[in-house]
Amino acid sequence: MATPFTAMLQTLSRQRGVTAALVVSEQDGIVIDSNMHIGQSGDRVAALAASLYRKARLSARAAGMGAVSFMQLEAPNGRLCAAGSGELVLVVVAATAVNVGLVRVDLLRAAVELAQIAKGGRSR
Amino acid sequence: MSEDVRRMSDQLARDPSSRIFVPLGEALRQQGQFDVALKVTLRGLERHPHLADAHDLLARVCVDRGEMERAFDEWDMVLRLSPGHLGALKGMGFVCFHRARFAEAERYLAAALALDPVDDQVASALHHVRAAQTQAASPQAAIAESIANDSRYLFLDVLPDEAQTALLLDPAGLVLAGAYIDGNGRDVAQDVGAELSGVTDAARRATRHLAMGDWTSIVFETEVAVVAMAPSSQDGLLVLATSRATPLGLVRRLLSRCQEKAQHWLGEQR
C-alpha cells in the first residue's frame, strides 16, 4: 500500500549504496514508513537515529546555532545520514562508498517535501 | 635675562657662525625659555647641521616641549654623527623608557653606564628600567601560565580562528575542557554538553547493530554552523563547532587535531 512517503523513500533508496531509507518520528523513534532491503529490521536503527538527531537538534538550540538540517554518522563499514523536518526525520543507511553529496541533496529535498506532507499538502 | 645669556647672545650677534649657540640654547632651556631655546638651536643648526651637540640640545628642548618622537629622531641623528655620544645614549634610554620599550631602554642605558661607570643618575635609571621590565613581564607570564592551566583554553592553539571552538565531554556530558561562547558572550558549554550526553552510547549501539564497526565521526549542519563529533578516550566525546563557511575537509582535519590534543591532555591528567 502506497503512503505519502513511498515516493520519496523509493527515490532515496535508488541511490547506489543506500540499503535503507526510513521516515521516523523524532520524538519516540517509531518508524512511520520505510524502504528496506529484505532481512533488515528498521526499528532499532530508527530509534537510535532519531535519538542522535534529537540530541544534535537540542545541542544546536542550546548553542544558539539554529535548526539542524543534515546529520551524518560515519563508521568504517557504513554511514547513517538523516535530515529532519518538524517532528519527522528521514534516515538513510548506506555503505561507505555511497555518494554522500548526492544523498545529502536528496535528503534535504525530501525533507522539504516531508514538511509539506506534514502540513497536509503534497508537492507533486 | 641673566648675565651669561646676555653675553652669549651678544657674541652670537657679532658672529652668527659661532658655536656659542649651543651653550646659549642650553642656558635658555634651563631658564624654561623653551621656545626661544628652540629658535636659537634651529638657527644654529642651519649653519652647523653636523654638530652632534647641537642635535643633542635640540632633542632635550623637544623633550621639554613634550615632543618625544622628535627627540628620538634627534638623538638618533646624534648617534649617527657621533656613535657612543653619552648624552644621546641617556636620552634614547629615557625616550624608550617613556614609550615602555624597556629592553631598548636598558640597552641604551647600559651602554651609557659602560662609558661613564660612576654616573649615579644612569645607574639609578638603569635600575628603574630593569624593575619596570620585570614588572611588565610578570602579568604576561602570569596570563600565559593561567591560560596554560585553564582547561577552557585547551584547544586555543589548535583553533586560532574565532569562529571555531571545541569541547571535550565526559560520558555524562559534563565538560572536561574547552568552551562554547554564544552570541551573547555566555559560555554555554555545559548546556551543549548536557544535550549531547549519551551520543557516544547511541552512536555505538547504532553502528554495532548495523555491523558498521565502531563509529568514527558524526557531523551535523545547522543554519549557522557545522558541528563535528568524534569519540575520545575513556568514553568521552569531542565536539568541534565551526562556521558554515568552513570546508568539510578542513573540519575533519581540525577534528583530528583536536582529538590528538585531547588525547595528550587526558594522558597528562591521569
What is this structure's SSE topology?
The complex is a heterodimer of chains A (124) and B (270).
Chain A: H1 6-13, E1 18-25, E2 31-36, H2 43-62, E3 68-75, E4 78-85, E5 88-94, H3 100-119
Antiparallel strand pairs in A: 1-2, 1-5, 3-4, 4-5
Chain B: H1 3-14, H2 21-30, H3 34-47, H4 52-64, H5 68-81, H6 86-98, H7 102-115, H8 120-149, E1 165-169, E2 175-178, H9 189-196, H10 199-209, E3 217-222, E4 225-232, E5 236-243, H11 248-269
Antiparallel strand pairs in B: 1-2, 1-5, 3-4, 4-5
Give an overview in words.
- The complex is a heterodimer of chains A (124) and B (270).
- Chain A has 3 helices and 5 strands; from the N terminus they run H-E-E-H-E-E-E-H.
- Chain A is globular.
- With 124 residues, chain A is α+β, with helices and mostly antiparallel strands.
- Chain A has a single domain, classed as Dynein light chain 2a, cytoplasmic (Beta-Lactamase), CATH 3.30.450.30.
- The longest helix of chain A is centred in the middle third of the chain and has 20 residues.
- In chain A, a hairpin with a 2-residue loop joins strand 3 and strand 4.
- In chain A, 39% of the residues lie in helices and 30% in strands.
- In chain B, 60% of the residues lie in helices and 11% in strands.
- In chain B, helix 5 packs antiparallel against helix 6.
- The longest helix of chain B has 30 residues.
- Classes of the chains: A alpha+beta (124), B alpha+beta (270).
- Chains A and B meet through helix 2, strand 3 and strand 4 of A and helix 9, helix 10 and strand 3 of B.
Low-confidence stretches of chain A: none
**Main sheet record of chain B:** 5 strands, antiparallel
Number of domains of chain A: 1
Helix percent of chain A reads: 25-40%
Unreliable segments of chain B (pLDDT under 50, ≥5 consecutive)?
none
Average predicted local confidence, pLDDT of chain A: 87
**CATH domain fold name of the largest domain in chain B:** Serine Threonine Protein Phosphatase 5, Tetratricopeptide repeat
